[in-house]
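Researcher: I'd like a candidate sequence for this fold, 389 residues long. If you have to choose between options at a position, lean toward the conservative one.
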């Protein structure tokens, strides 16, 4: 069990209101204008100076209390392009968009922490509250860093948090080192020779080539990657053909690659190119691979991971803080911030039972019961890292 966090009732009520308002009005990557307004207005009402415009819709609020160290706390703003199927009163009002990953809750928890810290100032130093756009696929974290996040808002360390519906409420999960996977995407354009479906011998069948290529790509993980190494190669899209009796000239494959090590990432890309070249030569087709490096892995630094563990353990029994979870094959663009500053990314349990929908599910909804605990984690981390002299 966890100790009741010292978050005031009016702050708890506001967190719930912020969360459900943002959930009902989801905005996707780099379009979070309304959400950014909600965040900026809330921070200004707390008396914090607010900066807007990094990565377009990013918001940074700064709370300074005397001289001392500085840290950055990060939440994400964006929703996903998917249709919500839940029927709760605060369900998405936007067709084809929903907060299916809990960024609405992450934002509300960080706002709640900002309100508590601005009221009580139980620290000495500077806290930057970073609200980042476009975490889902579009790399808003990278853009914020490139546009000078840590130049304008110097921080000795940066911390992130994500809700885990698969982890029971009242628990935390973290690990030192690699926490999430490297995310890459690819597009393969197969160009054969179109022909009548009844006379395939007169052409080069791009559909057959694509089928053999998809099968061959699976050998990268099963036969070219060590059993103790981790990699995923998934073809997630196949596009080709317009009618029943025409073999198309072109088929396009798209997909994703996940790895936990930069060396395996390099080997996987090289193997994909080799397979594409070999299949093309076998069939006399052209196979063009475009491999795009995406998010790096989230790599938690040791000292900051210990700090995150200690902050969590001040709120729950230490046995409820899992410190050696396996790395996840999902990805997070918080990684770009960790490439520039030491820091740690922690998971907060949000599960109430075995049938809870996971993130990216159309029935998912952030668990409001964890709002006070999430805000209290941020407060505990600040008090620990920026102690009063």
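Model: Candidate sequence:
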């Amino acid at each position: 069990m966890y100790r009741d966090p010292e978050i005031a009732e009016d702050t708890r009520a506001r967190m719930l209101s912020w969360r459900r308002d943002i959930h009902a009005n989801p905005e996707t990557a780099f379009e979070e204008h309304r959400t950014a307004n909600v965040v900026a207005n809330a921070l200004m009402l707390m008396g914090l100076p607010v900066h807007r415009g990094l990565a377009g819709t990013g918001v940074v609020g700064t709370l300074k209390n005397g001289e001392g160290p500085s840290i950055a706390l990060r939440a994400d703003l964006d929703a996903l392009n998917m249709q919500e199927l839940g029927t709760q009163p605060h369900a998405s009002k936007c067709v084809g968009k929903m907060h299916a990953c809990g960024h609405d809750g992450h934002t509300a928890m960080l706002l709640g922490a900002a309100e508590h810290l601005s009221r009580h100032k139980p620290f000495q130093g500077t806290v930057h509250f970073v609200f980042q756009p476009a975490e889902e696929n579009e790399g808003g974290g990278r853009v914020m860093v490139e546009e000078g996040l840590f130049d304008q808002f110097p921080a000795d360390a940066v911390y992130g948090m994500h809700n885990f519906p698969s982890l029971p409420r009242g628990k935390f999960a973290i690990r030192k080192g690699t926490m999430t996977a490297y995310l890459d995407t690819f597009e393969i354009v197969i160009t054969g020779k179109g022909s009548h479906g009844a006379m395939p011998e007169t052409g080069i069948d791009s559909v057959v080539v694509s089928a053999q290529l998809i099968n061959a790509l699976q050998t990268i993980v099963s036969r070219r990657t060590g059993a103790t190494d981790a990699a995923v190669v998934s073809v997630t899209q196949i596009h080709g053909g317009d009618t029943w009796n025409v073999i198309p000239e072109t088929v396009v494959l798209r997909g994703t690659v996940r790895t936990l090590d930069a060396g395996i990432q390099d080997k996987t890309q090289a193997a994909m190119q080799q397979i594409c070249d070999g299949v093309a030569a076998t069939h006399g087709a052209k196979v063009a691979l475009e491999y795009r490096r995406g998010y790096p892995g989230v790599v938690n630094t040791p000292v900051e991971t210990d700090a995150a563990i200690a902050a969590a353990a001040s709120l729950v029994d230490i046995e409820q803080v899992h410190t050696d979870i396996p790395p996840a094959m999902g990805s997070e663009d918080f990684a770009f911030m960790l490439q520039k500053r030491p820091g740690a990314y922690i998971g907060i349990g949000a599960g109430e039972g075995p049938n809870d929908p996971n993130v990216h599910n159309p029935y998912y909804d952030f668990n409001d019961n964890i709002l006070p605990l999430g805000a209290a984690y941020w407060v505990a981390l600040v008090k620990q890292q920026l102690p009063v002299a």
